[in-house]
Amino acid sequence: KSRLAYTVKQSLIAFLPGLGELIAGWMISRTVPMLDIKPWILIAYPMLLTSRGNVAGILSGNLSTLLNIGIVKPSLRKNTHVFYALISGTIFLTIITGLVGGLLTLLSFFMFYPLSILDFYEILGVYLSTAIFSSFLTIPVTALVGISSFRFGLDPDIVVYPIMSTLTDIVISISYFFMINLIIGLLNVIEGLLMLSIFLLLSFLFVFRFFKSDVFIRLVKESCLIVVILILVASLSGNILSTLRSEIIKNPAILIVFPALTCTAGDIGSVIGSMMTTKLVIGFLKPGFNIVIKMLPEILGTEIVGAMLFMIYGLIGSVTEYMGVIETLRNILVTLSSNIICFPIILLISLVTAILTFRRGWNPDNFVIPIEATLADLITTISLVLACMILL
């Protein structure tokens, strides 16, 4: 009972910032009038959320584990070499995911629409600029949240990623909206390329300081391939979400709640997976599927909070759009149905990934959260589409 209450309490602290995802959804819903002119905006958005979330998950997962075992100090200044090499590797992964995600958006767009040189510049420029610019803000904040939670006696495994996934999505959405208007509307091509070049230069200046570090090499070696593969999976989310374009125009609440649903679904699995990887590393648990039984209070605690928030998202999204009682109840049912469908699948993926990677001697923090978060986005997107088709 105490473990359940403890998990509910800390999950509530960690998940409540997920309400901020509604800000991200509202911000991106302002681009709905542009979807007919720039249909790639909807295709790229889930990929940006997923790829940035993967990198943030790798950083927060490693940081929480390293804080717990004492390799990283709870301080931003005069920290260990491992800490700064971890930050450097995270920046490098951001560049890689930005390039791959931009190219995948181009490919997805080209499959359905004619592609011009201007489209090539706009898509790749907006995507890569958004990824890098947002990382300049989210990486130091992730470190600060992890260190602060550790100092105040909170569990970084529970607190760091959920809080940062929300902040990351908000920053991504604001940055995406800003870059769309900046690159498409305000800057000419030369000015846009100059801005992107500055972003890349600043990133590589930090990367080059630590790229020979064993920590950097291992992080990139273990994570680079998996994040690229997961971006390929995330591209499905973008294309699937784009099938709801007509429904989104009629019911913008769908797009408003979308980041909140995917974020919270990922948070549920990431909290469970992160707690489990830490317990595996320090020897409290042995790899095996009986972990589900041993961690049942933690699993139930995270899902109770997650299901409650799914319903709240549906309510707030509907109220924001001034919908009637029937439409509001229907949207709440849609969001709750998505949670019920997603939870057991996400839980299974998180557990299996953690066990298999730990048994192979890989760092589970570099695999569990990115895999779980990406598949959570895809599964939640599919669940949302199915629920909308049936209930709306």
Arithmetic mean of pLDDT: 86
Number of domains: 1
Helical segment tally? 14
User: Approximately how much beta-strand content do the residues carry?
Assistant: under 5%
What is the CA-CA span between the terminal residues? 39 Å
Please tell me how large the radius of gyration is. 20 Å
Portion of residues in helices? over 70%
> Sheet with the most strands?
none
GO molecular function, one term: monoatomic cation transmembrane transporter activity
Keywords: Ion transport, Magnesium, Membrane, Transmembrane, Transmembrane helix, Transport
Transmembrane segments: 12-29, 49-71, 83-112, 124-147, 159-187, 193-211, 223-241, 253-274, 336-356, 368-391
Subcellular location: Membrane
Description:
It is a multi-pass membrane protein. Keywords: Ion transport, Magnesium, Membrane, Transmembrane, Transmembrane helix, Transport. It is found in: Membrane. The chain crosses the membrane at residues 12-29, 49-71, 83-112, 124-147, 159-187, 193-211, 223-241, 253-274, 336-356, 368-391. This is SLC41A/MgtE integral membrane domain-containing protein. The chain is mainly alpha-helical. The protein has one domain (2-391). 83% of the residues lie in helices and 0% in strands. The chain has 14 helices and no strands. Helix 2 packs antiparallel against helix 10, helix 4 runs antiparallel to helix 5 and helix 6 packs across helix 10 (253-282). The radius of gyration is 20 Å and the shape is globular.
